Amino acid sequence: MRLQRIGAVVLALALVTLVSGPAAAGPATGTLRDELDAVVADGSPSAVLEFRDGPRVERLAGGVAELGRQRPAPVDGRFRIGSVTKTFTSTVALQLVGEGRISLDDSLERWLPGTVPNGQNITLRQLLNHTSGLYNYTDDVLVTPEQVVRDRYKRWTPQQLVDLATSRDPLFPPGTAWSYSNTNYVLIGLVIERVTGRSLQTEVDRRIVRPLGLRDTEVPARHSVRISGPHAHGYLQVNGEPVDITALNVSSSYAVGDIISTTRDLNTFYQALLGGRLLTPAQLTAMKITAFDSGYGLGLSKVALPCGAEIWGHTGGIPGYLTFSFHQPGTSRYFSLSATSYAVVPDVALFNALTAAFCPAGTPAGTPAPLPDIA
Fold first, then answer.
1. What is the pLDDT of residues 291-324, one digit of tens each?
2. Which residue from 321, 336, 197, 220 is spatially nearest to 271, judged by alpha carbons?
3. Which InterPro entries match (predicted)?
4. In-domain check, residue 368
5. 302, β-bridge pairs
């Protein structure tokens, strides 16, 4: 199984759109406790979640923090959030738009001259909503679990990641189609650094982490490989056996998926973002304008649930960890979940957990859209 399988699964779940009307047939969703236990039963050593509905806050944990030991997974545990990082990166970029320092219609060439062929015809908006047509560099780097384990401490520079992508032909002319490409957000990160004169790590910290008091959220330094504080271990399956991959240099996920956080901090972040505390109304509106039929805006995904509820957020997959973080507009409901799946991705159980959080009790569970298998 290729490593991109995890990313493909969480992306497909993020972009799934169910036909409106009667709910799809399936088992009735249970309580959040039931659904979290199902995620663990379906192959995750651990899973943690936080659900907020106004003053009500429910925090749950299931499974063990480490295979072969009985210590339970910490309910306040930290984890790698994968591509949920993209919402943080996009928020910083849109703040710069609101400050008049960049425009979504600026060409990439204006800010990073000579970095990407045809950069004069690629806009920052097209990077943020994945319509640039640029090849996805993660299709060529750390593709298999064996490669991840072998190169787990290797340091990558953002320019090396861009060079990997630009060594391949573009998928289509800019703005003519949609294709999820991590290359886009590497470039947005570099634009942020060029405009501000500071590291992306510094900008995320000063603009989001510190103002919101996200005490358990950090953008790791490029030399850092550890998850500090309480956390469950993440694993990859190699030759049929689990290999602990908790210690990992995530420089290959710069601006794309390198942040560490908790369910509590993610809910606080999305509550502030979607509540208008981080962006102006104009920029928040722009964030929700989706491209083509993708359901993807500017670092934000839209999901339609079996009961007709529409939720916004993002999913993330990185070796050892899967993350979901979503909110239902017009309500005070926020839901974040992290699971340490490594052999079998519990896609139906994860989707059912979303349904249980945002749909009325007894709503039949839906079936996720067909999940692309890149194996």
1. 999 999 999 999 988 888 999 999 999 999 999 9
2. 336
3. AmpC-like (IPR050491), Beta-lactam-related (IPR001466), Beta-lactam/transpept-like (IPR012338)
4. no
5. 312
Q: Cα separation of 176 and 241, whole Å?
A: 43
> What letter represents residue 116's amino acid?
V
Task: Kindly state whether residue 369 falls inside one of the protein's structural domains.
Answer: no
Active site residue 20: no
Task: Supply the range of the domain harboring residue 143.
Answer: 4-358
How far apart CA 249 and CA 252 sit, in angstroms, is: 8
370 phi-psi bin (left φ>0, alpha ψ -120 to 50, beta other): beta
Query: Given pLDDT bands bounded at 50, 70 and 90, which one contains residue 30?
Result: low
What is the reported pTM?
A: 0.92
Has residue 221 been placed in a domain? yes
Write the CATH number for 290: 3.40.710.10
Contact criterion met (CB below 8 Å) for 306 and 29: no
* pLDDT tens digits for range 194-212: 999 999 999 999 999 999 9
3 state SS of 216? coil
Q: Residue 336: left if φ>0, alpha if ψ -120 to 50, beta else—which one?
A: beta
Query: Catalytic one among 20, 44, 46, 83?
Result: 83
- Residue appearing with tokens 């972009």: 15
Q: Tell me whether residue 366 is in a domain.
A: no
Supply the pLDDT for residue 142.
78
